[in-house]
Design goal:
alpha+beta; Alpha-Beta Plaits; nine-stranded mixed β-sheet; two-stranded antiparallel ribbon; 11 strands
Length: about 200
């Protein structure tokens, strides 16, 4: 039976189970042997991480050819105008080439998220706001590089969803096994685009 876990990776935790430098890892939170992260989040990013013992599922979630959507809540410096949002939607040039088109929206209110243990950089004369971005690829530090490319550096980054699975109901550091309905929805989402 396939194991599938959803986990709210806290800020400052590595997306692996061991670290020779003694930094916080997944092993500090998840005591289940034989599962691995399907994808990664940088140490300074937070949010949803799916873990599984299924190589097939992991490949479907992470291989760019399957274009599986991931949704991020992104706090950025200054307020992007319509042109900046359109550039994110169309794809921007970053190291390694142009990004795929993305969904990008300015959130009218900050999302209801717990405070981060290390506060973001605050500058009194520089406003900030929150965006919702949905990508179908996962290059190294891609969200941060995209927002910087359009003139709005990322201050805080939280992955909210991977396909139909979200952080809803979790708190930082908490994990749970996916319900049968959530497992079914996830499998359906990864094979939806198959021809």
């Amino acid at each position: 039976m396939t194991q599938m876990i959803r986990f709210w990776k806290p800020y400052g935790v590595l997306t692996k189970f061991t670290d020779s430098e003694g930094r916080p890892t997944l092993a500090d939170y998840i005591p289940i042997p034989g599962i691995y992260a399907a994808g990664r989040l940088d140490m300074d990013s937070e949010g949803l991480l799916l873990l599984t013992d299924s190589g097939r599922l992991s490949t479907r979630l992470t291989d760019p050819k399957y274009a599986h959507p991931r949704t991020y809540l992104v706090q950025v410096e200054r307020i992007p105008d319509a042109a900046a949002l359109q550039r994110l939607r169309a794809g921007v040039e970053i190291k390694g080439g142009r990004t795929r088109p993305a969904q990008a929206a300015l959130l009218p209110e900050p999302p209801d998220l717990p405070e981060r243990p290390v506060p973001i950089r605050y500058r009194e004369n520089v406003p900030d706001c929150w965006l919702q971005l949905t990508l179908t690829e996962g290059r190294n530090r891609q969200v941060r590089r995209m927002t910087a490319a359009v003139g709005h550096p990322t201050l805080r980054l939280v992955r909210w969803a991977v396909g139909p699975i979200t952080l809803e109901g979790l708190t930082p550091g908490a994990w749970e096994r996916l319900s049968p309905a959530a497992e079914k929805a996830l499998w359906a989402s990864v094979f939806r685009r198959e021809s």
